[in-house]
Automatic annotation (TrEMBL):
Sample GO molecular function, one term: xylosyl alpha-1,3-xylosyltransferase activity
Domain of life: Eukaryota
GO terms (BP aspect): protein O-linked glycosylation via N-acetyl-galactosamine
Designated name of the protein: XXLT1 xylosyltransferase
Keywords in alphabetical order: Transferase
Pfam short name (any one): Glyco_transf_8
Highest classification ranks of the organism: Eukaryota, Metazoa, Chordata, Craniata, Vertebrata
Organism, as annotated: Nesospiza acunhae
Amino acid sequence: CQVIVHDVNELTEKLFPIVEAMQKHFSAGSGTYYSDSIFFLSVAMHRIMPKEITRIIQVDLDLKYKTNIRDLFDEFDNFPEGAVIGTAREMQPVYRHTFWQYRRENPQTKVGEPPPDGLPGFNSGVLLLNLEAMRQSKLYNQLLEPTMVQKLTEKYHFKGHLGDQDFFTMVGMEHPELFHVLDCTWNRQLCTWWRDHGYSDVFDQYFQCEGEVRIYHGNCNTPIPED
């Protein structure tokens, strides 16, 4: 087993020029902070990792594994043609909220609607990055260009604060074919913040998850169930 440690400052130095343009749209702070670039690592991982690394699983720290993560690696084999990233849906109506203006102007849209038919956005707590596919996808790399980021944020009136997750969500509204949607049991989010902040009537449509949980995600400091 080989462990390679990467220097955060070195990574940030490589990342910053690639993701600087999107930071002002998807960062919590106002303006573009150099240090914020690390929250966009997954977006450009294919540009900064050595070519011989072809697949990476990127995970948050607030996770609890109920199964062997090797089984998650097998999900790479289920990517449809053209997909470059595997990710589970967001399990709160956060993007119903964020896309409110677009939704008001497009009352028939699936944007921000709950599963199974809607597009609730993605949660980046568990990400399967097919670096080889990301490198080869002309479409994906075009979407990283500042002009494309600007065009999409204007179309969707999008202003977020969740870093890579916001970028993937916005891109997924426009190009769902770039994503392999993981089952909710691979990223069973536990945060219920939006239930108490104006969305109690629709909350459970987003939050429900059938099946045996394989990874718990204690997002927004939510306690993870004991065994």
